[in-house]
Amino acid sequence: MKKIFLFLLFSFNLFVINSQADFPTKPVKIVVYTAPGGLIDVSSRKLAKIIKEQDFPKPIIIENKKGAGGLIALNHVIKQKSDGHTIFALTSSVISKVVGAGKESLFSELKFLGRIVKDYECVITNKKSNLDTIEKVIDQAKEKPGKQIWLGPAAGGTDHIFAKKVWNATNIQAKWVPYKSGGEAIAALLGNHGDVYVGNQQDVIGRPDLQVIAIASPDSVKYPNNFLNAGFTDLKSEVLWRGFAVKKGTSEETLKYLEKTIKLAIESEEWKKFISQGQMEGIFETGESFENAVKAQIETDKKYL
Amino acid sequence: MFFTNLLTGFELLFTPLGMGMLILGVVLGIFIGAVPGMSPSMGVALLIPISFGMDPTFAFILFVSAYQAANYGGSITAIAVNAPGTPSSVVTAIDGYELTKQGRAREALNTAVISSAFGGIVGVILLIVFSASIAKIALKFGPAEYFALAFFGLSTVVAFAGSNALKAIVGVLLGLLVNSIRLDSFTGDERFTFGIIELYDGISFLPAMIGLFALGEIFYQLESYNSEKTKFLSLNKTKSLISNFFNSKLTLVKSSLIGTFVGVIPGAGATVASFISYGEVKRCSKQKDKFGKGSLEGIMASEAANSSSVGGALVPLLALGIPGSATDAVLLGALTLHGLVPGPELFQTNVSLVYGIFAAVLFANILIIFFGLLGNSLWLQVLKIPKSIIYTLIITLCFIGSYTVQNSLFDAWVCFAFGILGWFLKKYKIPSATVVLGLVLGQMLETNFRRSLIISGYSGFLTKPICLIFLILSLFSLIIPVFSKKT
Fold this sequence. Notes:
The structure holds two protein chains of two kinds.
Chain A: H1 2-21, E1 28-32, H2 39-53, E2 60-64, H3 71-77, E3 86-91, H4 92-100, E4 110-126, H5 134-143, E5 148-152, H6 158-170, E6 174-178, H7 182-190, E7 196-200, E8 210-215, E9 239-247, H8 252-266, H9 269-277, E10 281-286, H10 287-304
Chain B: H1 2-13, H2 16-34, H3 40-51, H4 56-81, H5 90-101, H6 105-140, H7 143-155, H8 157-160, H9 165-179, E1 182-183, E2 190-191, H10 205-223, H11 241-247, H12 249-264, H13 269-284, H14 296-320, H15 326-337, H16 346-349, H17 351-382, H18 387-406, H19 409-427, H20 432-456, H21 460-463, H22 465-486
Antiparallel strand pairs in B: 1-2
Helix pairs in contact in B: 1-17, 2-4, 2-17, 3-4, 3-15, 4-5, 4-6, 4-14, 4-17, 5-6, 5-14, 6-12, 6-14, 6-17, 7-13, 7-20, 7-22, 9-20, 10-18, 10-19, 10-20, 12-13, 12-14, 13-14, 18-19
């Protein structure tokens, strides 16, 4: 009996060790859809650094597959093995761009792992303009219908869709002028080549000439300039999120391992400092809740694109 | 105050760690630049993990010295084997490789070193002294001005035309046509992509450039391959570097100023700077006919401009928190990763970092002279390798380099396809540089034309002074050669 018990115990241990040894067996790649230096790239590099310092057994490599708003990176990820060694770092903008290109069926090849950052969408203006409240922006837009210039990154991304939502909610007409990157659009706003820029709070950090005049956060106390206080309940909460996905078919054990690893990293003081410095909101939403949020976004995006 | 801050920067640079990072940055930068397919931005991104745990000032000494050196490094392979290591060294290859074929590789390589260092120093001096005021110039550039600048850049096609202007125009149009393959950036519609996702962001520029120049040249040479001539021509003695330098100081100053100015404008970059500088220097040169056939002035124009653009591109980064180039975007990300807030406040909150960067860029250029001239003796040995071996090495390097850009096999095929195209262009005497000109400026031209139309309609091009100046300059640049030929 004792021998049988020891045999079973040995077998169980062996099983546990084996199942842990299945992942990671080689370096893990985080595929980023922007060039180095983009916000998702910087966040991924920070997370990779923290994970490595937490004794992750294999190296973590950031691989930049830029272009087409994330379609190229997505196409690359779904061609990899479903073994968890390739992680797709994505944002809500990728969902919008892929929907806009009519390729949303590609998402069925992904397993959404978790989203870790929420950035509230903001309406930003140049302090040198007299547009220091959303009401003034609305008034100006009504004075020159269809001629107010809104700047932002590529057409069809989260920021563009948010701009359309604002126009709808405030009943104004304006023009969207897309730029290759947020940085170029910000430069255009600083040079007064447009009236409004759509982005996030961190876009004004270190740029004293810019101001957030309205934010789509439900927190009216922290953000008195939110859309709720201005009376636009439709724009209560609009976010650009950042998260991760892997190829569908990745084993449950690997998914749990990855979830646990990411959770451990985002609970670190270093990550929390990074998040607060960028005025972002840290979250950890996984499983069905995240999948449902993505599905809901796909449906909304279809309406606006 | 200013000098005290500058001294603080130098003090940090002259610590053992500061000097270590500077030397490491320059050596790695030259290597990164010399490898076709490795751009300065990729190189700096690869250095980021090394910098974790390091004081940000020393990390940035490493980054910016590598950034500056990589811009020079691209000229080495451009001159030696017609494989531009960086996009901005395409223009250097035009005359540089011709000189190598004439057995004057040492002269060409040494000229590239001196011109790069000179341009780099001018760029950084302007950055140190005028950063706040010249940052304002960058902001004056709206879509209409960008369009006019791109059009002015295209007008330099005249400089690459040689004896047949029509062929040069065919080259530019080919580049512009290739550029139209991509998702429309305004509507998201597919344009000549045939459902191939890899084409959604357009043809990858680096593999196309490597194919056009390096593979195209090899295919062309293989056609007339003679096994008896297995070595490159023997190398002539070096001309006096110093006399060359003093004879061409005006060219160097002019190119450096053009490079810094173009560098300041976010998104324009080192490649555009090189093309514009080459066009301008040729237009004013007394030896126009030498351009394209092995002109040292051509190398100076390209190298001084692309190196000085580094200092220029750092202006909007430090003064406004806006990246002036792809490498500056990586630097911006690196600032965030090191827990710093990018933007003008850095001048108050992180004085040592800002002035450490200034000191590092300045001294990186001095080290480039040392390591560049030292390295040239080694590069020249490469040219003595038999053709059969060197061609095999270049072909391998081209495919590996193209693959490395985005770890994509598709890019390796792009390189091959453009190699075939480069071969045909050479056969029919259409300058490859004109295709690159169309490729580099096509996107800037199209998107800014459309942006300007959205914002202010056609009148926008005629009511903005900077835009008008560039458009008039473009017209002069196109028309003057026609009249001067007739007379």
